[in-house]
């Protein structure tokens, strides 16, 4: 049985916080038996109240500096890698959740880690090279139409550095004349997307992820893989 109350935090140091909370609110309608609390997280105390967390887009270097200043970096690492709570990073959030990042400023940048991948920041160029592409996200379920992927100074996963097959590639994009890039990955409790579902008004990825959160916590959660299903509580494949 999933718990009846679940608190989902959105790291609110900078970036697209309210957009995520708006879509989480809409997505929560798919799980009427669960009471969700959505919480903006700026302190270790607030993080400790959370069962799951979204790390939004923004600027990963800034986010890391602010997180360090607020004493949040170590608690975040513990949340993701020791307590194995469900976490989703979008864009800069994906960068934060990678074990390695290239194209970082001199001296590198601090990361939370959790995904055994190396990301390449700003793969597609600057803000003006932002683009939208239809993505086939099979994990949303059979017969689901394409998902509008919004890419803004987006990173990609340039290499999976996990030798044990724990990193699952859940989405790719191919720009004309370029190689296919990995833009959605999952490793156990950690999910990352290069794109911004919170900017589309399409609730499907949020609903799917909340379904994973419900399942993970219902199964005793910690350390369990996320579930691939239809996002409406129907059990799918467990990785
Ligand atoms: N939209 C975004 O989150 C941009 C991410 C940013 N380019 C970074 O590296 O961290």
Class by SSE composition: alpha/beta
Ligand species = glutamine
Q: What would you report as the Rg, rounded to the nearest angstrom?
A: 16 Å
SS elements, strand count: 14
The largest β sheet comes out as: 7 strands, mixed
Q: What best-fitting shape do the alpha-carbon axes yield? A: globular
Biggest sheet strand order reads 2-1-3-4-12-11-10
> Please, what is the average pLDDT?
90
Measured as a percent range, the helix fraction is 10-25%
How far the N terminus sits from the C terminus, by CA atoms, comes to: 20 Å
Strand content: 25-35%
The number of helical segments is 6
Strand-and-helix sequence, N→C?
EHEHEHHEHEEEEEEEEHEE
Residue stretches low in confidence (pLDDT < 50, at least 5 long) are 220-239
Keywords: Glutamine amidotransferase, Hydrolase, Lyase
Family: Belongs to the glutaminase PdxT/SNO family.
Protein name: glutaminase
Catalytic activity: L-glutamine + H2O = L-glutamate + NH4(+)
Describe this entry's structure for a reader.
It is built from six helices and 14 strands. The chain is α/β, with parallel strands linked by helices and 239 residues long. α1 links the parallel β1 (5-11) and β2 (35-41). It is globular and about 50 Å long. The relative contact order is 0.17. Residues 220-239 have low confidence and may be disordered. It binds glutamine. Glutamine (GLN) binds at residues 57-60, 91-92, 95, 121-122, 152-153, 155. The site of glutamine has 12 residues, from α5.
């Amino acid at each position: 049985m999933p718990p009846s109350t679940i608190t989902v935090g959105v790291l609110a140091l900078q970036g697209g916080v309210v957009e995520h909370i708006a879509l989480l609110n809409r997505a929560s309608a798919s799980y009427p038996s669960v009471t969700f609390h959505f919480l903006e997280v700026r302190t270790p105390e607030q993080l400790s109240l959370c069962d799951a967390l979204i790390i939004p887009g923004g600027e990963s270097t800034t986010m890391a500096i602010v997180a360090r200043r607020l004493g949040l970096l170590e608690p975040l690492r513990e949340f993701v890698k020791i307590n194995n709570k469900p976490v989703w990073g979008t864009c800069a959030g994906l960068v934060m959740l990678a074990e390695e990042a290239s194209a970082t400023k001199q001296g590198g940048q601090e990361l939370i880690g959790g995904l055994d991948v190396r990301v390449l920041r700003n793969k597609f160029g600057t803000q003006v090279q932002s683009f939208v592409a239809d993505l086939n996200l099979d994990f949303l379920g059979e017969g689901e139409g394409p998902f509008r992927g919004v890419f803004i100074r987006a990173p990609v996963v340039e290499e999976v550095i996990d030798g044990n097959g724990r990193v699952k590639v859940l989405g790719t994009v191919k720009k004309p004349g370029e190689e296919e890039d990995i833009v959605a990955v999952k490793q156990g409790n950690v999910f990352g997307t290069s794109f911004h579902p919170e900017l589309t008004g399409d609730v499907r990825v949020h609903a799917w992820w909340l379904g994973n959160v419900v399942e993970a916590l219902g199964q005793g959660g910690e350390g369990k893989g996320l579930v691939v299903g239809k996002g409406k509580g129907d059990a799918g494949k467990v990785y």
